C-alpha cells in the first residue's frame, strides 16, 4: 500500500476497537504513527460492554506489526486536562499532530434502569463535549507545527436527520449530539482554514461494531421503537456496513487527494439518507 501519510502523526480517540481501530490500522499502513486514546472502562448508562485495556493493547500490537510507532493511553474524552496531558506526552515522543480523528462515542438506546437525566448528560458529555475537548486539546500541536492538517469528526446519519426519535432520553441525546457534531465541524472549519487545516465529518449508517452488532439493548430498541427500523433501512440491501467502509472515507479525507475539501458532511450510508 502506498505510504500517502509517511511521517505524519494521527490522534485517534475510541481507538481500542471498532471504527477507531480500523482507522488506526489503515493510517498506519499508509505511513502514519498513531496516538491511540480510549476510556477502556465501563460507563453505567451504557448498556453494552465498552472497550477494555486488552482491546487497546491489541490495537497497539497490530499497529506495531505494521512497523509504525504508537502511543496508547486510557483517557476519558470528558476530561480535557487528562487529554492534554496525554497528547503532550505523545507528541514529545512522536512529534506534532497532523491528523485528528475524533471518533469516540456511545449509543445507549435501549438502556433501562438509569435516570433520563443521567443518560442524556452522559451522551452529550461524551459524543459532543468530548469531541470538542479532543479538538481543542489536539489543535495547538497542529498550529504550532504550521504544516496544516486534517480533522475528521465521527457523526452519524442521525446527525443529518431525526428518524427514530421516540421520546427516549437516549435517542434524543444521540440525535442532538450527532447534529451538534455538524455544527462544531462547520465552526472548526471556519476557524482553522486560514491555517490550512481542513475539518469534515463522516456520517455512517449502522456499522458492524459492538455498539450495534450483538448489542441486545440496541437490537431490542430497533425492533420495538416507532421508527427504529427506519434508522438503518438502507437502500442498498445490506444490514450494516463494515468498519473498512467508514475507514475508506476517512482515509480519503485525511489524504492530499481531498486537499481542498473542508466543511463537508460525508455520508457512508448505503443510501439510507435518500429514503
From TrEMBL:
The keyword RNA-binding does not apply. Keywords: NAD, Oxidoreductase, Plasmid. Its EC number is 1.-.-.-. Pfam families: adh_short. Belongs to the short-chain dehydrogenases/reductases (SDR) family. GO terms for molecular function: oxidoreductase activity. This is Putative oxidoreductase. It is an enzyme of class 1 (oxidoreductase). The keyword NAD applies. InterPro entries: NAD(P)-bd_dom_sf, SDR_fam, SDR_subfam_1.
Amino acid at each position: 500500500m502506498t505510504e500517502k501519510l509517511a511521517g505524519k502523526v494521527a490522534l485517534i480517540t475510541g481507538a481500542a476497537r471498532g471504527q477507531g481501530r480500523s482507522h488506526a490500522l489503515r493510517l498506519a499502513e499508509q505511513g502514519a504513527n498513531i496516538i491511540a486514546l480510549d476510556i477502556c472502562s465501563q460507563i453505567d448508562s451504557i448498556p453494552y460492554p465498552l472497550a477494555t485495556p486488552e482491546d487497546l493493547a491489541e490495537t497497539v500490537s497490530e499497529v506495531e506489526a505494521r512497523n509504525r510507532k504508537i502511543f496508547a493511553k486510557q483517557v476519558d474524552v470528558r476530561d480535557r486536562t487528562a487529554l492534554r496531558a496525554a497528547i503532550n506526552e505523545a507528541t514529545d515522543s512522536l512529534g506534532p499532530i497532523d491528523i485528528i480523528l475524533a471518533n469516540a462515542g456511545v449509543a445507549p438506546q435501549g438502556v433501562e434502569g438509569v435516570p433520563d437525566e443521567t443518560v442524556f448528560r452522559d451522551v452529550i458529555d461524551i459524543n459532543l463535549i468530548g469531541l470538542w475537548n479532543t479538538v481543542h486539546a489536539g489543535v495547538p500541536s497542529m498550529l504550532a507545527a504550521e504544516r496544516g492538517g486534517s480533522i475528521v469528526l465521527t457523526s452519524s446519519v442521525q446527525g443529518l436527520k431525526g428518524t427514530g426519535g421516540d421520546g427516549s432520553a437516549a435517542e434524543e441525546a444521540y440525535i442532538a449530539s450527532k447534529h451538534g457534531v455538524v455544527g462544531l465541524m462547520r465552526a472548526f472549519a471556519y476557524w482553522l482554514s486560514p491555517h490550512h487545516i481542513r475539518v469534515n465529518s463522516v456520517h455512517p449508517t449502522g456499522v458492524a461494531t459492538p455498539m450495534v452488532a450483538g448489542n441486545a439493548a440496541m437490537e431490542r430498541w430497533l425492533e420495538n421503537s416507532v421508527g427504529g427500523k427506519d434508522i438503518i433501512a438502507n437502500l442498498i440491501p445490506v444490514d450494516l456496513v463494515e468498519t473498512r467502509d467508514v475507514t475508506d472515507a476517512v482515509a480519503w479525507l485525511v489524504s492530499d487527494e481531498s486537499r481542498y475539501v473542508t466543511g463537508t458532511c460525508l455520508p457512508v450510508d448505503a443510501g439510507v439518507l435518500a429514503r
